[in-house]
From TrEMBL:
Protein's name in the database: Sodium:proton antiporter
Transmembrane annotation, as ranges: 30-47, 53-70, 82-104, 110-130, 151-172, 178-200, 263-283, 303-326, 346-367, 379-399
Domain of life per record: Bacteria
A GO MF term: potassium:proton antiporter activity
Major location (coarse): membrane
Membrane topology label: Multi-pass membrane protein
Pfam families reported in the protein's UniProt record: Na_H_Exchanger
Keywords for this protein: Cell membrane, Ion transport, Membrane, Sodium, Sodium transport, Transmembrane, Transmembrane helix, Transport
Natural source organism: Pauljensenia hongkongensis
Amino acid sequence: MSLELLIIVCVAAIVATALTNRFRLIGPVMLIVAGLVASFAPGAEGAGLPSEVVLTVFLPVLLYWEALSVSLNGMRRALRGIILSATVLVVITSAIIMAAGLAMGLSAGAALLVGACLGPTDATAVAALGKGINRFGRTVLQAESLLNDGTALAVFAIALRVASGGTGVSAASVASEFAISIGAGLGVGVVCGTAAVLLWAKWNASRTDAMLSNLIALTVPFTTYFLAEELQGSGVLAVVACGIVYSRYNGNANDSAIRLVGIPFWSVLTYLMNTVLFIMVGLSLPDIVRRLPHQELVRGLVLIPIIYSAMVAARFVGHHAIIFSIRALDRRPQQRERRTNIRGRLVSTVAGFRGAISLAMALSIPGSFGGTAYEERDLVVLITAGVTLLSLVVQGIALPHVVRWANARPTAVQRREAEELDEETRVLAGIMRDIVEELPSMAQRIGVEDGELVNAIRESYGRREERMLQAASEEEFSFFDEDETALRLECIDFARARVLEARNAGRLDGATASLAIKRLDTEGALLAGPIEME
């Protein structure tokens, strides 16, 4: 990437993000548009990402972070539905899209490539645009989006063979390849995740050096992806499985310094990767359009809304087929409690955004097979990008309205979720109460004999317990009431200004002032609560 292109990408990202925040627009769409506009700037000609970079660098990092962030308890509650949606629903969606493409004159290879690219939903898009969905529903959608990438990439590999004119593509070979890809991917992911947990626990040095720890953590998704691909497994599924295992069993191994550095690091890294990916799609579209003959361009533009309609219909029909199959086979009372109504299924359909994963797969299609140019590549990329854009715009606009309509008639799942939030609040308040009860023994264990100090801390945690019980959920909890929080933050701002004033006047050394400001920032963060990074 040249310096001119780097500047163009940065400016496009800044402008798109600023407009998104100012007018509450759909972020990914604005990034694609910004890239499209930036493509006309000098130095942006022929911009694009190498296909191997998209699959081997971007996807492992993006999916690993999403796997670390998903709620495992929520996944367990709906594991059967998630697995079916991540496998059967992807196959159904890809098949229906392929049928629509064949009906409109696409070759079998191109139609299957479009189906494979648009088969999976995108975890990042769901997290960004699905904020109005209830917590359990959002967890299910995110988990489905994580796991369905492995299925889609298995279909994608088969589609590449068909597009290249490969022989020996039969039902038996497809089933065999699919089973090996999924099985080897899951196996490698579980092994790598377990190994990472064990190594982390054994190596004490990694638990005290935040920078080194996060550097080591960054190598985990790449190593996992490489090993799985070498064993003919799904690298993407391996990365997701590794992230889930690591998230579940490594909670106690990391100290607070590692988390305080690591969470912002991963959040910023994945944000930048998503931003670059969407902008590069916008930058590459004009070249794709210019390379396409006029007749093929018109054909692609006609196919976009047709393929999009088939994709949405496939998700709606596929969801119903899976749900009614489960209902027919499982008649247990607890299964009835998990049922969603037609409103909930419509929310799930509309929330099935396509995003960075679909674009990454399309961009990774090689321009030639065995030295022979693949003439339909640009058409496949155009259709995939157009459908993804339609998905983000149409469904992004429609989702808040559909969610409000669905919430007007709460289901048993939503009512149970409200009860669970109350119970979680009581659990967290109970932890504060346990601290109060155990405080004398803690003080004795570490050699603190100041009775007044112990009493002051006991009163502090007692107040935290009371405030936690008053909060509707952990997200609404604060250490102090609104007025006290505001006054304390004002004091911190005053102190920060005075420190800077003393530094500028030469009465404080720069290093001393920097350390004082860091302490004030830490105190302010404690009052304001965790920073929302995504």
